[in-house]
Design a protein that fits this description.
about 625 residues; alpha/beta; 2,3-Dihydroxybiphenyl 1,2-Dioxygenase, domain 1; nine-stranded mixed sheet; binds magnesium ion
């Protein structure tokens, strides 16, 4: 199946777009008139330039307000069409998109429109061109693909076919199953876009909020299943209008687009085998976080290790070949890497002390890497020292790394193989990583969401707003159905928010905090206090408010206040949390007790936590805003 993308979907000038689109692996483009009107080259030269990039021009668009007009408008519409045909022949493309009319003079009437298309089909056929008719969901008389199909059917011309667009069908909540009864060879082209569910004017929604399949909330997979079941075998093409994308990173957006189509067709194949070719391993179900690796040096490394000790971790091993220490408590492994070369050294040079690598526990590490490669991710490796295991890895976004550890191929033996054991694990009650919080600029949030949900068996929750005293941070959870891996993605717009200043200070490091789970937060804090730990101070006003919001058992409030523990509950259960002081560049650990059934992350407490962190930063003279 050929993949295509409308040039309007990504940022840049036409030449930048072509380079990025070709590099991402697309077969063709839909060309918008504006693209070449703005270019200095002639349509013929532009057509050649596109083909020189190895790309076809799959579609020329748009042509508006054609059908159903009275004279003299009708004759003028045909003249305009002939001029577009001239340009198409110069460019070297044979298919034009005509979208349903918004013209105030258009008369409506299926037969009148069909007659216009029949006549235009005759004119197109003389030049070897084809016409595709698309129902805009805000079209004046035709706003439903079923009506557009009836126009095409009655036009009864081999050079006139239907164009389907997932947004126009799904935004109007038209059942995509109705596509299954349309003959596949009468569907000339298929455009795909997703969108977040927002109640708003359809035109405004479409022009500003479309996104890649899988990034939004529409059932694009169900739509595509119906298209494939109808027997369609033309290109599948992205047509995305999105304000963020217009200003985003051209090549990253093109890669996301191609990734979204590969994942979509894999989903179609898995949900309805036979409709699409099998090709890549199924999504992987991560079983949890196997390790978190920090790059650090000197006094910052000492401060990090001091905090790990205060959090009850023990330094259980030192690497046989490298300046790398392993700290452990329960199933939590934290690696402190002070190497000056390799990936850790490069990340330290760019960002200072930060998380440079995450290890995930999976069933089959090689299968994850195979799927990731098929989705356009870059495998990662670096030279191995004596006795070191080759642990499969890929590059994530923002220069991050993900390693995959499985038991089947013995990769979980890495700790015994590569480290001298120095002590048993710590035992202050922290058992596993509850969640990771990654921070990014708001415009990168959709990329991260797509990265996780296309590679792993993870689902996303709706985006919620977190109030920072200096701005808004948007937060979205992606997690496995069983909760074994939970990631909160936080998108910051301004450097004045805590998340934004973290991004600026670390030049785009992604992991801002890691939440560690205990079954009894009070017992854990008692043990940690003896080791010299003191959590982030929370003002007493918070506890007065808590007493008003929740009906808490006697004594619990006082206990929480004494321990600086924050509280939340939802329909399923309740949740306790507290925070360690931030270390280099604003990274921090969170300690949580998640009682069975609680599904959240203490979101209502985030504004108080952020304010407390900023106060502490200012008191220490650290600029935080
Ligand atoms: Mg369209
Ligand atoms: Mg958290």
């Amino acid at each position: 199946m050929k993949t295509s993308i409308a040039t309007v979907s990504i940022s840049g000038n036409l030449r930048e777009k072509l380079t990025a689109i070709a590099a991402a692996g697309f077969d063709g483009i839909e060309i918008f008139e504006q693209d070449f009107i703005a270019d200095e080259a002639s349509p013929r030269a532009i057509g050649e330039m596109i083909r020189d990039h190895g790309l076809d021009i799959t579609l020329f668009q748009p042509f508006r307000d054609f059908e159903g007009l009275p004279e003299p408008y009708r004759a003028k519409a045909f003249d305009r069409a002939e001029r577009k045909f001239d340009v198409m022949q110069e460019l070297g493309t044979d298919l034009i998109l005509i979208c349903s009319s918004l013209h105030p003079k258009s008369l409506g009437g299926i037969d009148r429109a069909a007659a216009d298309f029949h006549e235009l089909g005759e004119r197109a056929a003389k030049r070897g061109l084809r016409i595709g008719y698309e129902a805009l969901c805000w079209g004046r008389h035709v706003n439903d693909h079923r009506d557009a199909w009836e126009v095409v059917r009655r036009a009864d011309h081999p050079n006139v076919g239907l164009i389907l667009d997932s947004f126009h069908t799904l935004a109007r909540k038209i059942d995509p199953e109705t596509i299954r009864s349309i003959p596949g060879d009468r569907i000339f082209f298929v455009q795909l876009a997703d969108a977040p569910l927002i109640e708003m004017d359809l035109l405004y929604w479409s022009r500003h909020f479309r996104n890649m399949p899988g990034e939004g909330d529409l059932d694009v997979t169900g739509f595509m299943r119906a298209v494939m079941a109808a027997g369609y075998n033309g290109p599948i093409s992205l047509e995305i209008f999105n304000d963020q994308f217009r200003g985003g990173n051209t090549s990253a957006l093109a890669r996301d687009g191609h990734r979204s189509l590969v994942a979509l067709m894999d989903d179609v194949h898995r949900q309805e085998p036979g409709l699409a070719a099998p090709g890549l391993p199924a999504r992987i179900h991560p079983k949890g976080v196997s390790f978190v690796e920090f790059t650090s040096r000197g006094t910052e490394a000492q401060a990090l290790e001091r905090q790990l000790a205060m959090l009850g971790f023990a330094r259980v091993g030192t690497h046989r070949n490298k300046q790398v220490a392993l700290w452990q408590q329960g199933d939590i492994r934290i690696v402190v890497n002070q190497e000056t070369s390799g990936h850790a050294g490069a990340v330290w040079n760019a960002r200072g002390t930060s998380v440079c690598d995450l290890g995930l526990q999976v069933e089959d590490a090689q299968a994850v890497v195979a799927r990731a490669k098929a989705l356009g991710a870059e495998p990662f490796s670096q030279p191995l020292g004596p006795g070191e295991l080759a642990i499969p890895a890929i590059r994530g976004l923002s220069g991050s790394l993900l390693h995959f550890i499985d038991a089947g191929s013995g990769l979980d033996q890495v700790w015994e193989r590569e480290f001298h054991t120095t002590a048993p694990p710590g035992d202050a009650g922290l058992t596993h990583v509850d969640h990771l919080a990654q921070t990014m600029s708001y415009e990168d949030m959709l990329s991260w969401t797509l990265f996780y949900t296309s590679l792993f068996e993870m689902r996303k929750s709706p985006i919620v707003d977190v109030i920072d005293p200096d701005g808004l941070v948007r937060s979205q959870v992606v997690e496995t159905p069983d909760g074994a891996l939970k990631v909160t993605l936080n998108g910051a717009d301004t450097h004045r928010t805590l998340a934004g200043s973290f991004l600026a200070d670390t030049f785009g490091a992604s992991v801002q905090h890691i939440a560690l789970a205990t079954n009894d937060i009070f017992a854990t804090l008692k043990a940690l206090t003896e080791k010299g730990f003191s959590p982030l101070a929370i003002p007493s006003n918070y506890y007065d408010d808590l007493a008003a919001r929740f009906d808490l058992p006697d004594g619990l409030l006082a206990r929480m206040q004494a321990a600086q523990v924050l509280y939340d509950q939802d329909a399923g259960g309740d949740f306790f949390q507290c925070y360690a002081p931030s270390i280099a560049n604003g990274f921090f650990f969170e300690l949580v007790q998640r009682n069975p059934g609680y599904a959240g992350f203490g979101g209502p407490n985030a504004p108080f936590r952020i304010a407390a962190q900023k106060r502490r930063g200012r008191a220490k003279g650290i600029p935080v805003a």
